[in-house]
Each structure stands twice: as C-alpha cells, then as structure tokens.
Design goal:
It is built from 19 helices and 18 strands. By secondary structure, it is of the alpha/beta class. It has two domains: about 160 residues, Rossmann fold (3-Layer(aba) Sandwich); about 250 residues, tm_1862 like domain (pyruvate-formate lyase- activating enzyme, Alpha-Beta Horseshoe). The longest helix is centred in the first third of the chain and has 15 residues.
Length: about 475
C-alpha cells in the first residue's frame, strides 16, 4: 500500500471557509482501500510553500493529489483568477520537492483539466468523481502497470495531451465510506468562521442551463443517496464536530422534488436542532410541502436561483421555470420566514435594456428588504458549457486557452458597461442589492469578527444580513 499526500489548495474564505468535502471523500476512499493518507489543508496556512515542503519531507509520499476547487470567483465582470496563486504557492514548491507522480482533481479540473495540466506543467488529472479513479490510479502505480484507459484520467506527455478518458462515476453513492471531517481537518478553525458542514444527497444534473458545467462534472443522470443514509450522516457529523450548521451542496437541492422531500423527512425524524441552508434552490420545484419540511428541519438560509425576472431572459438562459415560478417560490419562502439570497445573472444572450430593467424591478419588489439580492454582471463562459458554443466567432479568435482564464459573455444588444451602469443605479435604490464583482470581498478579520458576533447574539441570522444592516444605516445618514 502507498503513502498518499492529499493537498487542499483552496484558501478563499468569503463568505466563510468552505470545508473541502470532495477531497475528504477521496481521502476516505483511499483509506478504505488500505492506503496511508495524510491530508494537508492549506486554507488557513500563512506559509503554504513551507507546509508543502515539510509534508513531503516528513511523510515521503509515493503519490500526491492536489484538490483544486475553483478556477476563479465565477464573476463575469472583474473576475479574480485563482490559478496563478495556486501555481506559485502549491504546485511549484511541490514540483521542486517531490519527484513522484502528481495528480490534480476537483471541480475546477472537471471543467478544464487539459488546460490546467498545460498551465501547471503536470502529467495527470482526474475528471469528475474522484473516489474510484484515484483508487484505481494508486493501484496501477503501486503495481507499476500502464495508466492508459483508466476512467476519468487525463494524461500529458512531452507537452501534449495523449489521453483524456471520460469520467468514472460512482454509481452507488451509498457504497462510499462515510466521511469523518475531523479525521482530516482542524474543525475548530472552521467553527471560528461559523462554516457549515457540507452534505451531498445526490450527484448529477439533468437541467440544461446555458452557463453551467455541472452536467460535465457529474453527468446528466441523477445518482441518489438513500435519504436515511443522509440523515444518519448528518446526525453522526453533528455529534462528532459540534457543528449544527448544515449546507446541502447538490447542484440543485430540490430537483427531483420527491427526493429532496424524502431527505428532509428522514432528517426531521432525527429530532436534531439544526440550522440549514441549500445551494441552488430551483424555483420550478418549490411548493407548500417542501417549504413546510424545510421549516421543520431548521432551514434559515437558502440560495434561490432566480437568475432573472423576465421570461424572455429565462428562456435564453435555458431555464426550466418562468417568472411566475420565481415569484411564487419567493412568496412561499418569505411567508415561512426563511431568509433568501436571490441570485441574478445579468447579460444573458438576448439581454436588452428592457429585459434588464424588468428583472431589476421585478426582483427588487419581490424580495423582502431583508433578503439579499446577489447580482452577477456578465456571465462567465466556461469550457463545455452550452454558452461557449454560441460565443461570438469574432471573439473566439481572441481565446487561446479554451476559456481557462476568465471571459464574460456579452449580448449583442447591450454592452457590459451599460449593464453595469443600469445595475449600479438599482444598487443605490435597494440597500439589499449586492454586486458580486464589487461588494462581496471583506477582510478576513472582519469575517471572523462578524461570525463571532452572530454566533453569540444572533445565531439564527445569516451572515449577509449584517451587510444589509450596514447599508441601511449608511443610506439613512446619506452615505452609500
């Protein structure tokens, strides 16, 4: 069996440090296969270069895996590219210290694996689910067998991609070993920021949103975890870590609706006192029963993927819902007093001043004054998303890295600067509007202080309500 070092490269802490769920799942799979695993989490590191070198020197691994969560911050306008920092702080020190095989994986690699191998000058990458692929890779390396044909593996030799195999999905998610976050991470550090525990109830996405890459990452066929298994995992993790803040990280938590309801019923049966949130609630599948179950389980924060308040724009984005669905979902959640972060994407194919103004007016009125409206100006184009196929041919000639570095889509009828100007005007009217490319970054010391205050005095309130509160005060005294 091998000594395997896994490095979590993510160092972003906004709005809180994200527990590296995916790499922890890979670590659990490798340990279940009999390997000796050391997990190096660089999220809180003050000297990543030194920690990487020490880990190599002390552990002497036979294989190193690097998890890369994001290529950038996904802002279409003024996007922040993360890979330069990862290359300088993690990849370069690793290459200068370790002569064995290095493999990269994670959500970012699933989008642009080949391009990232070129960027980092590395030989191996894993696409999609990593658990089975990394176990198979380890076995072949240990036995000195050829790597060709290994599911999910991209190989680069002499500066050329020689093989890119399709992902190797885990068909039965219930067969995966349970994750013990505290085995790999210093959970106390995440608790200081009030970071939620990440829970996944399924993989895959059958939707066809034009900007999204989840289909490439996880496939179009849903693979479900048994609802009782999910509930048992939540109960175990809460008891072990003391964290009762749970975040469901499915691409879209409430589709299929029946599975989401079954998961919530199973968790409710545990009688746990939780504070829950969900990424990507789809407005097409929000009904009274779902909202009632969310209340029962303890939902106190949800991201609603509204994207637009105009039917024409929703159609151009490939959405499976319409404006009336957005309004109904918001109304039901507001009636249940579940705080909402409304997410908007401005600059879709076919966007005009009329469609843009309709969206801003519709959501500005529909959202509670204490709901957050997160606005993305310009849509980031990623390799393999449907949007890259309708990218203007004249602009495509300027792309030499297949969309690895941030590029935003620009509709024909409306340039990004005009979208920015109109959105800025709405931002000044509504204190609960947040422009993602401008207003979403705060110093680390502020995040820690706000998290501590909320945890102590307002434990049921989402962190972003502090932003709205501050903006209301500033607006009242004439400062914005």
């Amino acid at each position: 069996m091998m000594n395997i070092l896994l490095i979590s490269s993510n160092r972003l802490k906004h709005p809180w440090p994200v527990i590296p769920f995916g790499l922890c799942s890979v670590a659990a799979a490798l340990e279940a296969a009999g390997h000796d695993v050391v997990f190096l989490d660089l999220c809180f590191s003050k000297d990543p270069d030194r920690e990487v070198r020490l880990a190599i020197s002390n552990f002497k691994p036979g294989l190193v895996g690097v998890g890369i969560r994001n290529i950038d911050n996904a802002a279409g306008y003024n996007a922040v590219f993360f890979l330069d920092q990862i290359k300088a702080e993690v990849i370069n020190p690793l290459k200068s210290t370790f002569e064995g095989p290095i493999v990269i994986g994670g959500a970012a690699v699933g989008i642009s694996g080949s391009e990232m191998l070129h960027f980092f000058d590395l030989p191996l990458a894993v696409l999609g689910d990593g658990e089975q692929s990394i176990v198979d890779l380890s076995a072949r390396l240990e036995d000195n067998r050829p790597l060709n044909g290994l599911g999910g593996l991209i190989r680069r030799e002499n500066g050329m991609i020689v093989e890119e195999n399709p992902p190797l999905p885990v068909i039965d998610l219930n067969a995966l070993p349970s994750i013990e976050f505290d085995r790999y991470l210093d959970i106390r550090r995440y608790r200081k920021y009030n970071s939620p525990l990440q829970i996944q109830t399924k993989r895959g996405c059958a939707l066809r949103c034009v900007y999204c890459t989840y289909n490439r990452l996880e496939g179009r066929v849903y693979r479900f975890k048994d609802p009782l298994r999910v509930a048992n995992e939540v109960e175990t993790l809460v008891n072990k870590t003391g964290i009762r803040y749970i975040e469901f990280t499915d691409s879209t938590f409430n589709i299929p609706l029946a599975h989401a309801k079954a998961v919530l019923r199973a968790i409710a049966g545990k009688g746990l006192k939780l504070r829950c949130r969900a990424l990507g609630l789809n407005p097409a599948a929000v009904d009274e029963e779902l909202v009632m179950l969310m209340q029962r389980v303890g939902f106190q924060d949800v991201d609603l993927g509204a994207e637009s308040g105009c039917n024409e724009t929703l159609l151009s984005l490939g959405k499976n819902f319409r404006k009336e669905d957005v309004l109904k979902a918001g109304k039901l959640l507001n009636q249940a007093k579940i705080p909402i972060s409304w997410y908007l994407l401005l600059g879709a194919p076919g966007e005009t001043e009329d469609t843009l103004n309709e969206t801003l007016e519709t959501i500005g009125k529909a959202a509670s004054p204490w709901d957050l409206v997160v606005i993305g100006v310009g849509i980031r184009v990623y390799k393999g998303a449907p949007l890259d196929k309708i990218w203007q041919p004249t602009n495509r000639q300027k792309i030499s890295d297949n969309f690895l570095r941030p590029v935003h889509f620009e509709p024909k009828a409306l340039d990004i600067e005009t979208i920015k100007r109109i959105t800025k005007s709405a931002f000044h009217r509504y204190p609960n509007f947040l422009m993602f490319d401008e207003n979403s970054q705060y110093p680390e010391v502020v995040l820690k202080a706000v998290s501590a205050v909320l945890k102590r005095f307002f434990p049921q309130q989402p962190i972003w309500r502090v932003y709205i509160f501050v903006r209301k005060i500033l607006k009242a005294v004439g400062v914005d």
